[in-house]
C-alpha cells in the first residue's frame, strides 16, 4: 500500500514549536513507515520524514512572511493531485480546499477533519460528502450534515513526555493566546486561586493579547513565555500543579490536555466539545462550567492520582493505536 499524506504548509512537518496539524501528520507518517507502509509526505521542502518527501514550498509561510499563503497552498495541493493516480490512498489533512481537486484522480481520498473553523466552510464538505471518506477526531466534532467512516482520536508519542509523580507549584495555560482558548479566564482563575500562572503559546489575536492579557503580566503572578520547543513543553507540562483549559468554544480535540496528562499533570477544563471524551472527570482532572467551579476543582487537585493520568493516555491516546486505526480504514477502503 502506498499512501500520499498531504500536510499543511503553515509550518514545517514536524513543527519546530507550534503547528498542531503538522505535528499530527508527522506522528502518523512516521508511525505508518514503522509499520511497513510506504508513505509519500507532501509538505514543506524543509520537512523531515523517514518516508518519501515531496515539497514545493521552501518553508512554512508562517515562518516566512514573504510567501503568499494561497499561492503556495494551491501549488502544493496540485503537486499531489497531478500525480494522484500513483497512490493507493490519498490522506488529506489540509482542510476543505483539496476536496475541490478530487476529480483530478481516481485514487480514494480520506480527509481527517481537524475541526470546523466556521460553519461557512460546510458547503464544500457537503458538496463532496460520500465522494470523500471523512474522519472525525472526536465524536463531539461531527456535523450532522456529513457522513463519516470513523472517529480516530489523536495519539501522541509517549516518549516525548516524561511522567512526573511530584505535584508542581504553578498553574499552566498552554495554547493559542485567543478568546477561544480562554486565556483571560485562565488568568482570572489563577488570581482567584492564588497560584502563579505560566502561559505558553503563540499570540493569535494581538488585540486580545494587548487588551486582555498584557496588563496582568508580571513575573510573580502571571508570566507569558511565548511558544516553546518540544523539550521545554515536556518540562512545563510535567512540573505544573495543573493545566487549566477554560475554553470558550467546542474544541475538536485538545492535544495539550492529553500531553499534560501524559506527564501525570491533571487538567481542569470547561466541559465543552471533546473534553468529556478526553478527560475522565474526577480521575484525570475535572470538567467544570465556570471560573468559580475551576477554583474549587483546583483546591481538590491532590485527590487526583497522577499515575492514573499517565495510564489513561497510555491506554487511549498512544500513537500506535492511532496508526493502527488509520491502517484499518485504509484497508477497508482499498
Describe this entry's structure for a reader:
There is one protein chain. With 334 residues, this protein is an alpha/beta fold. The chain folds into two domains: 2-155 and 318-333, Glycogen Phosphorylase B (Rossmann fold), CATH 3.40.50; 159-316, Rossmann fold. 33% of the residues lie in helices and 15% in strands. It has eleven helices and 13 strands. It has helices at 20-34, 69-81, 122-127, 183-193, 206-213, 230-238, 255-262, 275-278, 291-299, 306-316, 319-333; strands at residues 2-6, 38-42, 52-54, 89-92, 109-113, 133-136, 150-151, 171-174, 197-200, 222-224, 242-245, 267-270, 285-288. The protein has a seven-stranded parallel β-sheet, sandwiched between helices. Strands 10-9-8-11-12-13 form a six-stranded parallel β-sheet, with helices on both faces. The radius of gyration is 20 Å and the shape is globular.
Measured by DSSP, the beta-strand proportion falls in 15-25%
Helix content: 25-40%
Give the count of structural domains: 2
Number of strands: 13
- Superfamily (CATH H level) name of the largest domain: Glycogen Phosphorylase B
Round the mean pLDDT to the nearest integer and report it: 97
Along the chain, the helix and strand elements come as EHEEHEEHEEEHEHEHEHEHEHHH
Class of the largest domain in CATH? Alpha Beta
> Low-confidence spans: pLDDT under 50, at least 5 residues?
none
What is the fold-level CATH name, i.e. the topology of the largest domain?
Answer: Rossmann fold
The rounded Rg comes to: 20 Å
Second CATH tier, the architecture of the largest domain: 3-Layer(aba) Sandwich
* Head-to-tail CA distance between termini: 9 Å
If strands are numbered along the chain, what order do they take across the biggest sheet?
Answer: 3-2-1-4-5-6-7
Q: What does the overall shape look like?
A: globular
Amino acid at each position: 500500500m502506498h499512501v500520499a499524506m498531504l500536510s499543511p504548509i503553515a509550518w514545517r512537518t514536524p513543527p519546530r514549536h507550534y503547528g498542531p496539524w503538522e505535528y499530527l501528520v508527522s506522528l502518523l507518517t512516521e508511525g505508518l513507515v514503522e509499520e511497513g507502509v510506504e508513505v509519500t509526505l507532501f509538505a514543506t521542502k524543509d520537512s523531515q520524514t523517514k518516508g518519501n518527501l515531496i515539497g514545493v514550498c521552501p518553508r512554512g509561510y508562517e515562518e516566512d512572511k514573504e510567501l503568499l499563503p494561497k499561492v503556495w497552498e494551491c501549488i502544493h495541493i496540485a503537486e499531489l493531485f497531478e500525480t494522484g493516480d500513483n497512490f493507493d490512498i490519498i490522506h488529506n489533512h489540509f482542510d476543505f480546499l483539496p476536496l475541490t481537486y478530487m476529480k483530478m484522480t481516481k485514487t480514494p481520498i480520506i480527509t481527517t477533519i481537524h475541526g470546523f473553523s466556521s460553519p461557512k466552510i460546510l458547503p464544500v464538505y457537503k458538496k463532496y460528502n460520500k465522494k470523500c471518506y471523512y474522519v472525525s477526531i472526536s465524536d463531539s466534532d461531527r456535523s450532522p450534515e456529513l457522513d463519516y467512516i470513523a472517529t480516530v482520536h489523536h495519539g501522541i508519542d509517549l516518549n516525548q513526555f516524561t511522567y512526573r509523580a511530584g505535584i508542581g507549584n504553578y498553574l499552566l495555560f498552554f495554547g493559542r493566546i485567543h478568546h477561544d482558548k480562554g486565556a483571560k479566564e485562565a488568568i482570572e482563575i489563577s488570581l482567584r486561586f492564588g497560584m502563579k500562572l505560566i502561559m505558553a503559546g503563540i499570540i493569535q489575536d494581538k488585540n486580545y493579547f494587548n487588551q486582555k492579557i498584557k496588563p496582568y503580566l508580571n513575573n510573580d503572578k502571571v508570566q507569558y513565555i511565548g511558544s516553546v520547543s518540544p523539550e521545554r513543553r515536556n518540562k512545563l507540562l510535567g512540573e505544573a500543579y495543573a493545566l487549566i483549559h477554560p475554553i470558550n468554544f467546542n474544541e475538536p480535540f485538545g492535544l495539550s490536555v492529553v500531553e499534560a496528562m501524559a506527564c501525570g499533570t491533571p487538567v481542569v477544563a470547561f466541559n465543552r466539545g471533546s473534553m468529556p471524551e478526553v478527560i475522565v472527570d474526577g480521575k484525570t482532572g475535572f470538567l467544570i462550567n465556570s471560573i468559580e467551579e475551576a477554583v474549587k476543582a483546583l483546591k481538590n487537585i491532590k485527590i487526583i492520582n497522577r499515575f492514573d493520568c499517565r495510564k489513561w493516555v497510555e491506554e487511549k491516546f498512544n500513537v500506535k493505536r492511532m496508526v493502527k486505526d488509520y491502517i484499518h480504514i485504509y484497508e477497508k477502503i482499498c
